[in-house]
Amino acid sequence: MAGITLQNISKSFGATRVLRDVDLDIRDGEFLTLVGPSGCGKSTLLRIIAGLESQSGGHVAIGGRAVDQVRASERDLAMVFQSYALYPHLTVRQNIETPLRLRDLNAWERLPLLGLLSAGRAAKMRRLRAQVAETAEILKIEELMDRKPGQLSGGQRQRVALGRAMVRKPAAFLMDEPLSNLDAALRVHMRSELAELHRSLATTFIYVTHDQSEALTMSDRMAVMMGGEILQLVTPDEIYHDPRDLRVAQFIGTPQINVFDAAISGGQGVTVNGVPLAAEVTGDGDLAFVAVRPEHLTLLPADGAGQPLTVTLKENLGADFFIHGHIGDGAAPVIVRATPAEAADVAIGSVCALAPLNAAEVMAFGRDHARLDLVMTGAPAAVLERV
Amino acid sequence: MIDTPRPRGLFKTGHAFVAPAVLLMILILMVPVVVAAILSFSNYSLGSPDFDWVGVKNYSKLFARSTYKKMLTASFVYIGVVVPLSVFLGLGAALLINSLGRFGNIYKTIYFLPVMATLLVMAIVWEFILHPDVGVVNRLLALGCGTFAETILSFGWLPWVDPATTFYGHGCAQDFPHWLGSKHTALGTIIFIGVWQGFGFNMVLYLAGLTSVPRELVHASVIDGADSAWDRFWLVTWQMLGPTTVFVVVITTIRSFQVFDTVEALTDGGPVKTTYVMMYAIYEKGILQNLIGIGSAITIVFLLFVLAVTLVQRWFVERRVHYT
Questions:
Q1: FRET partner for A347 with CA separation of 20 to 30 A, picked from A16, A159, A259, B318?
Q2: Which of B219, B225, B323 has the CB atom closest to A89's CB atom?
Q3: Of A381 and A264, which is predicted with more confidence?
Q4: Cα–Cα distance between A316 and A321 in angstroms, integer?
Q5: Minimal CA–CA distance to B172: which of B196, B194, B191, B147?
Q6: Cβ <8 Å between B223 and A73
Q7: CA distance A372 to A374
């Protein structure tokens, strides 16, 4: 078990800068997720921690020990790959045994046949077999031990890959999109199982994914990466409710957060799409956007006092409906969450009204995407009766 | 299978569609083999009006006469040396080229050149190179005689070696070998040319195989503690190349069985039948001497060997080297 510290990590492939001075402090025993769109550098960062790739600049320390010059196998980390990367010619048992054999047996003892002659080998192998059996029991894969990876389902391979990582009790687990090859139902199931495993092992997990739901459900903290930088590193709750960057707000949350053009008029007063908002921007900052989550928008009947919204699509998710539409002449697309009762009266092509924004629930962002603080002026917008 | 009633017409149409292919296959592939098999029990020769059935006499000759024993020895020694050497050299070259960034393509081209060149033309070039008097090889070797090179290469500096008895010492004192003309060196020389010509092809096959080794698997082995290149090769690369290796070995074996051009151009099966390989024997008996019966018998034995190799390959393919 160990914390991991990254200092000013940068990485370039030729002229392309993949990572730009990343600083990251991962606490001992933490489940930290690196999430971001593909190409944001999250997998490269993970491989640098693992030692599979060397950084162009900066330092990595594991458990307080600088490991910049330490090879991958000696960093005491385990990794689970997207493709599971099981050895196809070996049985499940041999696959799980491999890291132990490579570590605990010397080259002589690993030789086929001749190795059997060496003195301490039998005792070592007994110890090693016991560890493998223990791991198999935890993961409930005992009945698969003599099969080859080709005979296993995706979920079973996933477990074997976990077993191979767990068996030598590493200081930290690195996981590179381990669930992305599973079908949707299994992915949700494995999510809870991974979280459970993390609790019982109490070891540091670094988890890379592009799937925000995996990041939100499992992590203690999550780092949103884009363009080779960490934009924000906080708890999932904070990321969702208090994003410090417009790109974070847009990446996290399904459906995507609504973004409106905003401007300052008359001192510090904020107008959104030309409609004044009962709030002011504090401090400096070139206000450009205001963002509102779909669940914070309210639909009114067509004759209600609000901006007209032309409905283009109704998405039925069972418990909720998402109403897609646009304000005015197709300018700003808007998504509103509605209850089935609210959505019942909304027809595609009809015009509803969008209730005035509640200043307490909007987030303001500058032209450079940075979050700006808002203070409310006067009473928040009246709570309007729902349709 | 569920018995579904099928219109008669459809059945006929289907047969009509496969008929040309089946017919061609029978005419071009099956009939010649069957004819050869039948002729191998006769003493037929092309152009003669009549012939007799001789039973298995041709085959018993094959296994009794010393000429044919020499033929089998030459063929199997050739295969036994050329296959492992050209497979391992091909693998080695492929691994080295694969680890190169910049000059890989140059080496690829150089090693592949002998494969692309016509072997018959190359054989003539080799004939000049290996000529006992004017050949580059022996001229070069003779240059070193009387200099420090002779001292080193004749191993006279080792206390237990008599320099006159070693290859180089003997060569300087008397003559360097007549590479293609001596019964001691002829087969070895043919083998050398076979390896030189063939390993580039295996290298290309291995290079293709290497592209299918998943990078994540190599990374997994690194994380698991496979520190040395040998560990990684043994745990991942070699295993992933299994299907390629089976294919390469089979192809090389069959090509080695079929070696002909170098023998025909350089040695004509001699001296004293030391390079009398099967393909050359078929050519000599069946074509040059018009002994169709014995030629056919050798052909059938030849086909049986190739068939055996193919069956072994099938067994490997099904049993061991495919993982999914």
A1: A259
A2: B323
A3: A264
A4: 5
A5: B147
A6: yes
A7: 7
Contacts 24+ apart (CB under 8 A), B232-235: B233/B95, B235/A87, B235/A98
pTM to 2 decimal places? 0.78
Torsion sign, CA atoms A60, A64, A69, A74: negative
Residues of B in contact with A52 (CB under 8 A): 219, 222-223
User: Which of A46, A67, A81 to mutate: most B Cβ within 10 Å?
Assistant: A81
Instruction: Measure A34 CA to nearest chain B CA, in Å.
Output: 19
Please give the pLDDT value at position A68: 87
Cβ neighbors of A319 (< 8 A, separation 6 or more) are A340
pLDDT digits (tens, 9 = 90+) for B43-71: 887 777 777 788 788 888 888 888 888 88
Which CATH number is A4-241 given? 3.40.50.300
Is A86 in a helix, a strand, or coil? coil
Nearest CA in chain B to A167: B224
Q: Do B219 and A89 touch (CB under 8 A)?
A: no
* Strand arrangement of the beta sheet that strand A57-62 belongs to: A16-26, A4-13, A57-62, A65-66
Report CA-CA distances (Å) from B171 to A139, B126, B139, B141, B192: 71, 20, 11, 8, 20
Give the gap in angstroms from C-alpha B206 to the nearest C-alpha of chain A: 19
**Nearest CA-CA distance, residue A211 and chain B, Å:** 21
pLDDT at B44: 80
Q: Using CB atoms, which residue from A83, A89, A164 is nearest to B239? A: A89
Q: Do domains A4-241 and A257-376 have the same CATH topology?
A: no
Give the whole-angstrom CA distance, residue A67 versus residue A62. 7
Exposed / middle / buried, residue A27 (Cβ in 10 Å: 0-12, 13-18, 19+): middle
Mean pLDDT across the stretch B239-264?
Answer: 89
Residue for token digits 């074996």?
A: B253
Least confident range from A117-131, A152-166, B210-224: namely A117-131
Query: B321: nearest CA in chain A?
Result: A89
CA dist., res. B228 & res. B237, Å (int): 13
Q: Dihedral sign, CA of A19, A23, A29, A31?
A: negative
Q: What residue type is A286 in one-letter code?
A: D
Q: For chain B, what percentages of helix, strand and coil (3-state, to nearest 5) are there? A: 70, 0, 30
Which residue in chain A is spatially nearest to B216 when comparing CA positions? Answer: A85
Query: A73–B220: do the CB atoms touch at under 8 Å?
Result: no
Residues in chain A: 387
Q: Is-cis flag, bond preceding A380, omega within 30?
A: no
CA–CA gap between residue B185 and residue B190 (Å, rounded):
9
Nearest to A299 by CA among A324, A332, A330, A317: A324
Q: Measured between alpha carbons, how far is A380 from B2 in angstroms, rounded to an integer?
A: 73
Q: Tell me, which fold does domain A257-376 have in CATH?
A: OB fold (Dihydrolipoamide Acetyltransferase, E2P) (2.40.50)
Of the partner residues A83, A87, A99, the one whose CB lies closest to the CB of residue B225? A99
DSSP H stretches of helix in chain A: 42-50, 92-104, 107-110, 121-139, 154-166, 184-201, 212-218, 236-241, 246-251, 340-344
Residue B220 to residues A33, A53, A86, A164: CA-CA distances in angstroms? 21, 13, 8, 10
CB of A155 closer than 8 Å to CB of A124:
no
Query: Inter-chain contact A85–B214, Cβ cutoff 8 Å?
Result: yes
Q: Please, are residues B176 and B189 in contact by the beta-carbon 8 Å criterion?
A: no
Q: Which two tokens stand for residue A387?
A: 């349709």
Domains of chain B: 1-39 (no CATH), 55-132+177-319 (1.10.3720.10)
- Provide the residue type at A360 as one letter: A
Domain boundaries, chain A: 4-241, 257-376
